[in-house]
Amino acid sequence: MAILEMNHIRKAFGDLEVIRDISLKVDKGEVLSIIGPSGSGKSTMLRCATMLETIDSGEIRYLGERVAWAEPGGEKVYPKGDKLRQVCSCFGLVFQNFNLFPHYSVLKNITDPMVHNQKRPKSEAVQEAMDLLARMGLEDKAGSYPCQLSGGQSQRVAIARALALNPKILFFDEPTSALDPELTGEVLKVIRSLADLHIAMVIVTHEMNFAKGISDHVIFMDRGVVEVEGTPEEVFEADHERMQSFLGRLEH
Amino acid sequence: MSFQVIMTQLLSGLGRSIEIFLLTLLFSLPLGLLVAFGRMSRNRVVRGLVWVYISIMRGTPLMLQLLAVYFGPFYIAGMKLGSMWRFTAIIIAFSVNYAAYFAEIYRSGIESMPPGQYEAARILGYSKTSTFFRIIFPQVVKRILPSVTNEVITLVKDTSLAFSLAYAEMFTIAKQIAAKETSFMPFLAAALFYYIFNAIVAFGMERIEKAMDYYT
C-alpha cells in the first residue's frame, strides 16, 4: 500500500494554473525527488500534499485512506480539527527557512510537540530528543536558542523536530536553498542517513547530484506538468530537450 | 495646613490613582486582545462594529468618555446609580478606552508574525488555540512590549482625568489643596509623585523587556 498517493491534482492561484493534472505515489521506504525550474509548481505540490494549500481538483490519500479531495462540482473536502491533526501526524515537513520556534530552546522545539500534542511523557520525549540531536551531531546545542544556530544547524534541528513525531513520510521543501555550499553538505549528509533507514521521503531540491544519488524515483516538472519521470538514470539521461537545457547540458 | 497633612492627603490620592491604574490594566489588557480578535474577525459585521468602536474610542477625548459613562445611564435611561457608581464608571471608561489602543497594538504584533510559524505549528499537530497561546502570543508580547510601555506610561498620567468626575485621586486632591492654601506647592509635589510612579513603571517594563532578550 502506498503511503502517499496524489491523483490528478490541479491547483491555480487566480488565473495562474500552477499544477496541471499531476499524479504521484510514494511507497514505504521510497525516496522521491522533484526537480525542475523555479515556478514549475514543485513547492506548491508539497504544500498541497501537506494541506497547507487546498487542491482545486483531484484527491490525496494517505495509507490508502482518502483524506482530501475536490468534488466534481468544485467543492473541496478537507479534514478539520482532530481529524486534520490525525492526518497531519502521518507526515513531517522540513521548510526551506526552517521555521523553528525562536522562543523555545532547541530541546523544547523538539519535545514540545511530542509532549503537548502527542501526550508522551516528558522524560521519554527528552530522552528521544537527545538521541535525535546526537544523530544530528548537535547534542551540545540542546540548550541553545535558534538565533544562536547556523543555518545548517537550524535545518538539522528542524529535521530532528519532524522525526521526533515518527511520521510515516517526510517532506523536504528545498531544504538547502537558504544555505551556503558548506552548510548544504552537512544537511544533505543527514538526509542521506535517513534514506539509509528507509524512511519514505519526498524532496524538492535543486541539488541535482544529491537527487541522483539518493532517489528511487525522480520527477522533472515544468510549468505545472510532469515532463519526465522514472529512475534517476532514466530521468537524467532522458533525451528530453527542456530537461537537458535545465540541467545546463545543451550548447547555446 | 501643615506640610505633613498635605503630604498625607496627596499620598492617599496617589493610592487611588494607583488603584485606577492597576484595575484599568487588569481589564483592558485581556479586553484589548478580545477586541483585536474582533478587529481581525472573518465576520464582516463583527469586524465593522469593532472598527467603529475603536475609531470612537480613539477619536474622542477620554475626558468626554468619562462623563458619558458616568452621566449616560441617568440622561439616557433615567437610572439613579449609587455612590459606588463614580468609581465603577471611571474603571469602565478607562478600560474600554485603553482596550481600543491595546487592541491595535496586539493586532499589529499578530499581523507581523511570519506565516511560517503558523504553518510549522499546524504540521507539528498544534490545535489552533495551542498555536496561538504557545507559539504566536509569546512572540507577539516580545514584539509589542515597547508600544505597550508607551501606553502604560500614558495611563499613569491619564488617571488624573478622573478629576473631571471629582474623584479624589491625586490630581483632584492637589487642585483642592492648592485652591485652599493658595499655593503652587501641592502641584509640584503631585508632579514629583507622578514622575516617580512612572520611573518605577518604566523600570519594571524595562526589566520585562530584558527578561525576553534571550532570543531574537
Give me the oligomer status.
heterodimer
| Beginning-to-end CA distance, first to last residue of chain A | 45 Å
The ordered H/E elements of chain B are HHHHHHHH
Instruction: State the fourth-level CATH superfamily of chain B.
Output: MetI-like
| Helix fraction bin of chain A | 25-40%
- The parts of chain A where pLDDT drops under 50 for at least 5 residues are none
Estimate the strand proportion of chain A. 25-35%
What form of chain B results from the Cα inertia axes?
flat
Spell the H/E element sequence of chain A. EEEHEEEHEHHHEHEHEEHH
Strand % of chain B is: under 5%
CATH topology of chain B: MetI-like fold
Q: Gyration radius of chain A, to the nearest Å?
A: 18 Å
Give an account of the 3D structure.
The complex is a heterodimer of chains A (252) and B (216). Chain A has 252 residues and is an alpha/beta fold. Chain A has a domain at 101-166. Chain A contains 9 helices and 11 strands. The radius of gyration of chain A is 18 Å and the shape is globular. Chain B is mainly α and 216 residues long. Chain B has one domain: MetI-like (MetI-like fold), CATH 1.10.3720. In chain B, α3 (62-77) packs across α4 (85-111). Chain B is flat and about 70 Å long. The chains are: A alpha/beta (252), B mainly alpha (216).
Question: What is the topology?
Answer:
The complex is a heterodimer of chains A (252) and B (216).
Chain A: E1 4-13, E2 16-26, E3 31-35, H1 42-49, E4 57-62, E5 65-70, E6 76-77, H2 81-88, E7 91-94, H3 106-117, H4 122-135, H5 151-163, E8 169-173, H6 181-196, E9 200-204, H7 208-214, E10 217-222, E11 225-230, H8 232-237, H9 241-246
Parallel strand pairs in A: 3-9, 3-10, 7-8, 8-9
Antiparallel strand pairs in A: 1-2, 1-4, 4-5, 5-6, 10-11
Helix pairs in contact in A: 3-4, 3-5, 5-6
Chain B: H1 3-39, H2 44-59, H3 62-77, H4 85-111, H5 115-123, H6 128-158, H7 170-181, H8 185-211
Helix pairs in contact in B: 1-4, 1-7, 1-8, 2-4, 3-4, 4-6, 5-6, 6-8, 7-8
